[in-house]
Amino acid sequence: MTDKIKVVITNQQKKVKIPTGMRMLVRRCCNAVLKLEKFEGSAEISVTFVDNEEIHKLNLQYRNIDSATDVLSFPLGEDGKYDLDPSTGAKMLGDVVISVEKAVDQANLYGHSLQREIGYLTAHSVLHLLGYDHETGLERVHMREKEELVMEQLGLPASSSYVIEDN
């Protein structure tokens, strides 16, 4: 594979120390999703770590939802068409914003590692950048299967306690 995947990672929060290896994991997740989806050409993805306060502001500003969330995706492409970075010719897929505070809470809730949670949120969000949605049941199942496949490829399979009943 000669295509270059550039993942720009920025940490804009101070509440949680980013563990060693987390940036590499995020890059591996991005690459695994693009490979799974047979994405062609060079690509650029921006990933930003924020706190709950910042993601709350973004969620309110862009989605009109007045609460913190775990991850937001800001796709730059539509129907497989992307803007190109003039300096590299790479397709600019968009931005991923992850609340590290929320990821810590969810890792504790689901009984798995922070690495697993951030990896999952990254895979989930990159699928959104590629146009996936989870508004309908079938789309949600399809997207979840792809996320879990990527997690397994990276050696971060779901623990048995991962599913929480929705009653």
N/C terminus separation = 45 Å
Per DSSP, the total helix count is 5
Radius of gyration: 15 Å
Count of distinct strands:
5
Total discrete domains: 1
Question: What CATH architecture would you give?
Answer: 3-Layer(aba) Sandwich
Q: Can you give the helix content as a percent range?
A: 40-55%
Mean pLDDT across the residues is 91
**What is the H-and-E element order?**
EHEHEEEHHH
Largest sheet: 5 strands, mixed
- The fold-level CATH name is Collagenase (Catalytic Domain)
Describe the protein.
The structure is a single chain. Strands 1, 2, 3, 4 and 5 form a five-stranded mixed beta sheet that branches. Helices cover 43% and strands 19% of the residues. It has one domain (5-160): Collagenase (Catalytic Domain), CATH 3.40.390. Strand 4 and strand 5 form a beta hairpin. The model is unreliable at 160-167 (pLDDT under 50). It is globular and about 40 Å long. With 167 residues, the protein is an alpha/beta fold.
Key terms:
43% helix, Collagenase (Catalytic Domain), 167 residues
Give a short synopsis of this structure.
The protein has 167 residues and is of the alpha/beta class. The chain has five helices and five strands, in the order E-H-E-H-E-E-E-H-H-H.
Task: Detail the topology: elements first, then pairings.
Layout: E1 5-11, H1 22-36, E2 43-50, H2 52-63, E3 71-75, E4 83-84, E5 91-99, H3 100-110, H4 114-129, H5 137-153
Parallel strand pairs: 1-2, 2-5
Antiparallel strand pairs: 3-5, 4-5
